[in-house]
């Protein structure tokens, strides 16, 4: 059985860090538009807050990815379930992710997007679990590095529950 969610990062801590990330990204990209590409579904809340913290003009896009065997096999099969609606050729792309775990999802996605000839491509993630990495990922912006705990809330789910929690919480086995 799983425990009740235990607060790990409060909504206020998250808000402060996301604002800082927005300031950094605004400084790094004086000229827009930046194509913010969030990976569904987990990144939807981070996307909404980060986009408003960035003062450089942005365009908002979403991509759907599903992965099988993530964290269990090194081959980790990944496929696109909802593709972009626009061309990113010649544009700055910032991939917006809620959490990086094995790195399989982002390794696949960045390789795919690079083939579409963006002017630049970087990654912004709210959470990073470096201990779980199977594939190296070059991440430009990290909100919080966290230990290998199962976290939910602020977009992250357990079996589709808890995405609407304002805090990020830990679920533990009891
Ligand atoms: C989670 C998360 C990342 C991915 C990271 O998505 O949102 O996209 O896993 O894991 P990785 O680094 O091991 O590839 P999930 O498949 O749980 O879907 P969701 O975003 O719809 O919750």
How would you sum up this structure, described in words?
With 174 residues, this protein is an alpha/beta fold. The protein has helices at residues 11-28, 44-53, 104-114; strands at 6-9, 34-40, 58-68, 77-82, 92-100, 120-128, 141-145, 150-152, 168-171. A six-stranded mixed beta sheet has the order 4-3-2-5-6-7, sandwiched between helices. The longest helix is centred in the N-terminal third of the chain and has 18 residues, at 11-28. The structure holds 1-O-pyrophosphono-5-O-phosphono-alpha-D-ribofuranose. Residues 39-42, 67, 70-71, 97-105, 157 line the site of 1-O-pyrophosphono-5-O-phosphono-alpha-D-ribofuranose.
Average of pLDDT: 93
* Helix vs. strand class: alpha/beta
Topology, number of strands: 9
Q: Give the count of helical stretches.
A: 3
* C-alpha geometry: globular
Strand order, largest beta sheet: 4-3-2-5-6-7
End-to-end Cα distance: 6 Å
What are the segments in which pLDDT stays under 50 over at least 5 consecutive residues? 70-74
Give a short account of the largest sheet: 6 strands, mixed
Bound molecules: 1-O-pyrophosphono-5-O-phosphono-alpha-D-ribofuranose
- The secondary-structure element order is EHEHEEEHEEEE
Which strand-content bin applies to the residues? 25-35%
Q: What Rg do the Cα atoms give?
A: 16 Å
Q: Could you estimate the helical fraction of the residues in percent?
A: 10-25%
Describe this structure in a few short sentences.
This protein has helices at 11-28, 44-53, 104-114; strands at residues 6-9, 34-40, 58-68, 77-82, 92-100, 120-128, 141-145, 150-152, 168-171.
């Amino acid at each position: 059985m799983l425990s009740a969610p235990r607060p790990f990062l409060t909504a206020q801590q998250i808000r402060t860090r996301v604002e800082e990330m927005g300031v950094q990204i605004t400084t790094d990209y004086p000229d827009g538009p930046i194509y913010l590409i969030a990976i569904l579904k987990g990144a939807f809340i981070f996307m909404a807050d980060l986009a408003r913290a960035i003062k450089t003009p942005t365009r908002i896009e979403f991509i759907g990815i599903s992965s099988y065997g993530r964290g269990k096999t090194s081959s980790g099969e990944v496929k696109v379930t909802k593709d972009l609606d626009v061309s990113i050729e010649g544009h700055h792309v910032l991939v917006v992710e809620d959490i990086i775990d094995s790195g399989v999802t982002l390794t696949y996605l960045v390789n795919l997007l690079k083939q579409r000839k963006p002017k630049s491509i970087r990654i912004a993630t709210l959470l990073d679990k470096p201990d779980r990495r199977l594939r190296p990922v070059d991440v430009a912006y990290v909100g919080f590095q966290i230990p290998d705990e199962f976290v939910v809330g602020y977009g992250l789910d357990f079996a589709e529950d808890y995405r609407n929690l304002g805090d990020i919480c830990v679920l533990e086995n009891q």
